[in-house]
DNA sequence: CATGAATGAGGTTTCATTCAT
DNA sequence: GATGAATGAAACCTCATTCAT
């Protein structure tokens, strides 16, 4: 696995040094995202309930009380973590489809790879793991995530599938279940990275995505189109 | 307390047969499995840390102290829950492959459907969600699960894929990543059921699995085999 | 001052010994009032906010967690303290007036002395100090106290005054303000006991009440009745 | 922090002139008294411990740090609040008696009404409530208040009573307890205003004081003096 | 002078664990 | 075996106090 899921202690030390000398005002602005970044790492690693605010504060290099200058409660902090992970995800997703001119297959490939590069493989990927683990304890967060991320992501895939079916690139399929089947390996890739990274199961993301796309595109193509 | 707080690796090795001979405690009646059943439900719903022993006891209809007659600690209970969910899963999986005579495609289909019917759709499916959510906090449990369930499950799929490739039913593929891509939608089906069940995203398991298999088998088939 | 306002450490030691050996069941029943008694002492001494639950628990001879077996929160405990102090006060007050046959003056004297003996000089007197100090922070408690204790107590005095005015024992007076003027020295007696007891201001309750009644009864009597 | 946490008795001795020369801090403008005024309001309303410096600062329209430019600690601020409420009270009281030429009854009436008009009904009245509520937590403040306000106030009343007894206006009485009985309704008037103001118990101060004086003066007069 | 971000000791509250009954 | 009252460590959270700006 080529990405470090959790920050090393060296990272932490660097972060502390880098921000130590900044003027007060810049700190004030930068603080919230420093805190949510630290919180995200720990929430993903340990889960919401098992993460102590002390640890978040320590990782962010501040005192426990400082957290409460920016977030009213642990739960508020949690929601800020999710919100901060969702907004860029949405923006990134929207950019993918706008005025795409190529084939449906190429669009599909672009969506899968783009998602992985801009979301899945980044720190934001942890949000997915977090939502999955904590959705039952935070139904409103899950609902928001569902409405704004899942629905939107499915919409992008639906467009690509419809386009391919309409122009004969793809077979006629049950589009809705197709969407879920396409998304699943992407989400599982994240989960594997965050859940079983430490036991021997080394998944190679690139080969994995390649295979996923290969199987998918061959599975979608009408028999007569294949050589 | 006569037991160390954290389980030793020996404890883990015992996971598989833990429910048969609970250490220092007899189990003649059904009590222990009533307790683990209640615990499983709540662990899946709230996560390990957020689940209180009071609630488990209440759901099982016993007093809190009774839990300690059967399990030395909350962590021991957790491991028993996992163990009890894993053993039948393994047994079920093993039965699938033994002396299977049909085509590789039919075997593959049988494995997918059989897993869903005997594991995924049952209460044991929750164990998957649980492992995913808690693996970082219980590396030994995750390792055990990996070694005994994941490795074993992948092994079954590997056999099926190899057989299909060898006999020309399937294209030549990167078998290892193929395995993960095949498993992913199954696991995600569980996660959807346990994480987003309450927001509008109603996944139809049968259609979903059909589509998964349809895409998969068409994607695996060599072009010339398709009509 | 002849009454100890706060328990001495000897009292505490005795209490602990006395209850140490009681069977579990008896403890369970007796616990709440042991806890409220300890809480009352400390709330009166330090005020609600400045009293730590640690101290209450220590004084009651239990652990901090035990408080939460009986009261949901510090505020709930506070309200229980008040409630427990109010109920007997009401009962005591009601008994005073029932079918009283003597003169209005004797009734008045009986009310004043009775209140002092059964309420003011007992541990329940602290509740008055507590209500006065904390009413702004607990408006609902204050309202309840007003409606059930103050209104009721004023009602008793109103009856006595009306009777005396009707039968010529007393002058015609503005009964309502008279009531408040009569009550005031009683309440202040408590406040003095709980607020300035430690500086040199030794008020002699008996002499004080005698003087209060003396001034009052002479002030109420019509001129021609005095010799 | 260069000051010990608890005030020394020397600090207390300075209470009276504390507002003239705040240690280490100059006071040219009205700022400090704006701060103590805000603090008084909140201390009276919520009590010392339950009042946050944030709230005091907000009410005074300054930042929290500004409080520490004028007062070394919350406790110092508290004592300044008391001191500022006591000094004018003493001055006002002293003026009452000087070279009074009228009857003892008129003097008594003047003392009661004067106190109400200049102390009880003003913002300084809150100090009385405050002392009553907090005296146990600030014994030195209470002692100072006792020595300089209570003793002095009782002294004024003692003079008036003695004069009346000596010249035959009043009966022979136990002067000391008489003093306390006379003061009590005044203090209770304040307490009612600050403690039960919000539940329906509307006390009319003028009628209340009239009745108090009426009862008192008739109670004090010898029988033969009444018509 | 004035600010307000930052601190950390100390408070309330929770809950896994124990043990007398 | 079973109970549930009791415990106390540890969590979340508050707020008096400091200090760089």
Automatic annotation (TrEMBL), chains A, B, C, D:
GO MF entries = DNA-binding transcription factor activity; transcription cis-regulatory region binding
Pfam family, any one: TetR_N
Keyword tags:
DNA-binding, Transcription, Transcription regulation
Q: Where is the HTH tetR-type domain?
A: 29-89
InterPro entries on file: Homeodomain-like_sf, HTH-type_TetR-like_transc_reg, HTH_TetR, Tet_transcr_reg_TetR-rel_C_sf, TetR_C
DNA-binding region at which residues? 52-71
| Name of this protein | TetR/AcrR family transcriptional regulator
């Amino acid at each position: 696995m080529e990405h470090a899921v959790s920050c090393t202690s060296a990272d932490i030390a660097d972060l502390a040094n880098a921000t130590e000398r900044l003027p007060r005002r810049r700190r004030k602005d930068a603080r919230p995202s420093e805190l949510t970044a630290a919180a995200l790492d720990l929430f993903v690693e340990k889960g919401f309930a098992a993460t102590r605010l002390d640890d978040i504060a320590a990782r962010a290099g501040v005192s426990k009380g400082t957290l409460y200058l920016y977030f009213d409660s642990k739960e508020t902090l949690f929601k800020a973590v999710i919100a901060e992970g969702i907004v860029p995800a949405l923006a990134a997703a929207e950019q993918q489809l706008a005025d795409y001119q190529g084939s449906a297959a190429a669009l599909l490939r672009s969506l899968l790879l783009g998602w992985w590069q801009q979301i899945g493989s980044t720190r934001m990927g942890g949000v997915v793991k977090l939502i999955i683990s904590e959705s039952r304890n935070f139904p409103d967060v899950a609902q928001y995530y569902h409405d704004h991320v899942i629905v939107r992501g499915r919409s992008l895939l639906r467009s690509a599938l419809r386009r391919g079916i309409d122009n004969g690139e793809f077979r006629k399929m049950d589009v809705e279940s197709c969407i879920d089947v396409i998304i699943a390996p992407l989400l599982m890739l994240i989960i594997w990275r965050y859940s079983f990274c430490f036991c021997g199961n080394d998944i190679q993301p690139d080969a994995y995505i390649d295979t996923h796309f290969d199987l998918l595109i061959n599975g979608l193509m009408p028999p007569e189109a294949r050589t």
